């Protein structure tokens, strides 16, 4: 598959999304200003797709970086593709547009290129991102995802966002939206964890059959944030097969892990705050993995999920009980 730095996938609504994006999530222990510095570097080295979310609590910092890079002439706004996400406490239809407007205000942007339902699991509306009762139990909130989706459609009609999609949805939840009576816009993408240990082949096949782009996060094995990730899980970039293939191509394991997803038609989100690694992660367009390497990497799949959101596994809309 021929891919260059300008490569984009055409979404089902006609808009184009760059095939490689820069992820901005960082664990709470890191200063939020790191996101600002890293986003500036990412734009300077060539990233044109920036992925963020209200839940990351760094939209203001990422927005400042974007504003600065537009201001100094590095990039024009229309050359950038910005993705934001609706958090779980804003699933009630009347809360969707105000949540989007708040993010746009923090970002200092007039519109988003893509707005996603971050997760299918509703939480109690309010100021707390993860609301808990007096016993410390998370307070769930029953919402119909189809109603949330209608509110997302209205955001698109209002010109606040160009494209709308979902994240962390399983096939059943995608079909709930796709089969909704009166559906105006299909989700353009489903953003999910995807890497050599969780290659999402069945979900990828389903999404492709519905003209829904699969966007992969955690592609290098996640941030290993102690709050969310089991520290006993293997370090993806240390995989001996991955390292051997990387040596054959004189590339880093991260570059091979990225290239593997791109050649399978997955939009890949690479995340780092290290300037050298940010630059390295964008240098994946000057080599191609032969079919035998792809097959070898496919063989590493073990359906291992780093981000299993087990905090909410008893939620009625928890997505990861299903096979895909």
UniProtKB/TrEMBL annotation:
GO terms for molecular function: aldose reductase (NADPH) activity; ketosteroid monooxygenase activity; steroid dehydrogenase activity; structural constituent of eye lens. Keywords: Eye lens protein. Substrate binds at residue 118. The keyword Iron does not apply. Residues 20-301 form the NADP-dependent oxidoreductase domain. The active site is at residue 56. SUPFAM superfamilies: NAD(P)-linked oxidoreductase (SSF51430). GO terms for biological process: steroid metabolic process. Pfam families: Aldo_ket_red. PROSITE patterns: ALDOKETO_REDUCTASE_1, ALDOKETO_REDUCTASE_2, ALDOKETO_REDUCTASE_3. GO terms for cellular component: cytosol. The record marks 85 as: Lowers pKa of active site Tyr. InterPro entries: AKR (IPR020471), Aldo/ket_reductase_CS (IPR018170), NAD(P)_OxRdtase_dom_sf (IPR036812), NADP_OxRdtase_dom (IPR023210). Belongs to the aldo/keto reductase family. PANTHER family: ALDO/KETO REDUCTASE (PTHR11732). This is Rho crystallin.
């Amino acid at each position: 598959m021929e891919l260059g730095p300008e490569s984009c996938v055409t979404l089902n609504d006609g808009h184009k999304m760059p095939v490689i994006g820069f992820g901005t999530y960082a664990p709470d222990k890191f200063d939020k200003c790191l996101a600002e510095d890293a986003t500036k570097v990412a734009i300077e080295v060539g990233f044109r797709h920036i992925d963020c979310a209200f839940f990351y609590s760094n939209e203001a910092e990422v927005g400042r970086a974007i504003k600065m890079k537009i201001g100094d002439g590095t990039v024009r706004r229309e050359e950038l593709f910005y993705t934001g996400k609706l958090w779980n406490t804003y699933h009630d239809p009347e809360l969707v547009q105000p949540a989007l407007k708040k993010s746009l205000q923090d970002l200092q942007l007039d519109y988003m290129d893509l707005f996603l339902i971050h997760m299918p699991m509703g939480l109690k509306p309010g100021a707390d991102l993860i609301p808990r009762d007096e016993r410390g139990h998370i307070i769930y909130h029953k919402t119909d995802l189809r109603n949330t989706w209608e509110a997302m459609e209205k955001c698109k009609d209002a010109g606040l966002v160009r494209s709308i999609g979902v994240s962390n949805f399983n096939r059943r939840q995608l079909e709930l939206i796709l089969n909704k009576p009166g559906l105006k816009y299909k989700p353009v993408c489903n953003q999910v964890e995807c890497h050599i240990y969780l290659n999402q082949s069945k979900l990828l096949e389903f999404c492709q059959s519905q003209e829904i782009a699969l966007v992969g996060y955690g592609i290098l094995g996640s941030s290993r944030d102690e709050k969310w990730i089991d520290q006993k899980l293997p370090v993806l970039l240390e995989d001996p097969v991955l390292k051997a293939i990387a040596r054959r191509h004189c590339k880093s394991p991260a570059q091979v892990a990225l290239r593997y997803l791109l050649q399978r038609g997955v939009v890949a989100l690479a995340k780092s705050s290290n300037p050298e690694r940010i630059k390295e992660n964008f240098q994946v367009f000057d080599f191609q993995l032969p079919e035998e390497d792809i097959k070898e990497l496919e063989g590493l799949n073990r359906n291992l999920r780093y981000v299993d959101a087990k905090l909410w596994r008893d939620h009625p809309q928890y997505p990861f009980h299903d096979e895909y």
